[in-house]
Write a structure and sequence with these properties.
7% of the residues lie in helices and 31% in strands. With 256 residues, it is mainly beta. The structure holds magnesium ion. Magnesium ion (MG) binds at residues 124-126, 136-137, 234, 236.
Length: 256
């Protein structure tokens, strides 16, 4: 039997490719032009033009203590510093006056340069989406603790994929995408809360599914709540500093 030459095989494959291409629809069939995405100006070093600035170093006007007997935090050298009070006094947790659902969040934090305490007692705070779902803030630089409670964890639910912590006293960043849970009118859960997080630019949570609001003891459990609730920062009796906090409200294909 005569074997086809490589040149003949090449010619045949070209002809087959041409026939295949001729049977495909025109490329315009899979192109659409509407709706046009909104323009967001993203200038280097500035917040995106559609962001809601929650702290720019000059004012705490966007924040209030969660508890009526709470106390506002302080501004020190353009940073927002946790005002702490030893237990059993009420915490000075702070929440935004505005409520949010699905958001993109940017936040910078600095754990104390002088290391005090260990495990959960060292540089502890937290970002509570909707005041309920905690992205843990902790000094996790050479500081062993339970892994689903270290920095970048969804507290007591998901450890971070990696530990991207910087040393104490250095500024660190969180960039997160939070999707609020959806509840049916009757209160049943339609879809759980989800969280994606970059810690210092490193992916530490990827579309992680939350089992319910954060709890310290016991198993989390969903309870129906409003579609939008304030963002909260935790006073865990450690003097952390925050700066450059902003959110973008997201309208996703699945948003109600
Ligand atoms: Mg915490």
């Amino acid at each position: 039997m005569t074997r086809p030459t490589s040149a003949a095989l090449f010619l045949l494959s070209c002809l087959a490719g041409l026939t295949y291409a001729e049977n495909l629809p025109p490329p315009e069939v899979t192109e659409y032009w509407q709706p046009v995405p909104a323009v967001v100006t993203a200038t280097a070093g500035l917040v995106p033009s559609d962001a809601i600035v929650l702290f720019d170093g000059t004012s705490l006007a966007a924040w209030e203590p969660v508890k009526a007997n709470g106390h506002p935090w302080q501004i020190e050298a353009g940073t927002m510093v946790v005002a702490t009070k030893p237990a059993p006094a009420p915490t000075y947790d702070q929440q935004t006056k505005q409520s949010f659902g699905d958001v993109q969040l940017h936040l910078e934090f600095r754990t104390p340069a002088q290391v005090v305490g260990s495990s959960q007692g060292r540089g502890n705070s937290g970002v509570f989406f909707m005041g309920l779902y905690e992205l843990q803030v902790l000094d996790s630089y050479n500081n062993p603790t339970y892994v689903n409670g270290q920095a970048g964890s969804i507290y007591k639910q998901h450890p971070p994929l990696v530990n991207a912590s910087r040393p104490p006293g250095e500024w660190q960043t969180y960039d997160a995408i939070f999707m609020a849970p959806r509840f049916a009118a009757a209160g049943t859960l339609i879809s759980p809360a989800r969280l994606t997080v970059f810690h210092n630019g490193v992916l530490v949570q990827h579309d992680a599914i939350m089992r319910g609001p954060t709890v310290w003891r016991g198993e989390p459990k969903y309870v129906p709540h409003a579609a939008k609730l304030p963002l909260m920062l935790q006073d865990h009796r450690n003097p952390l500093a925050f700066r450059n906090i902003w959110v973008r409200e997201l309208t996703l294909p699945t948003s109600p």
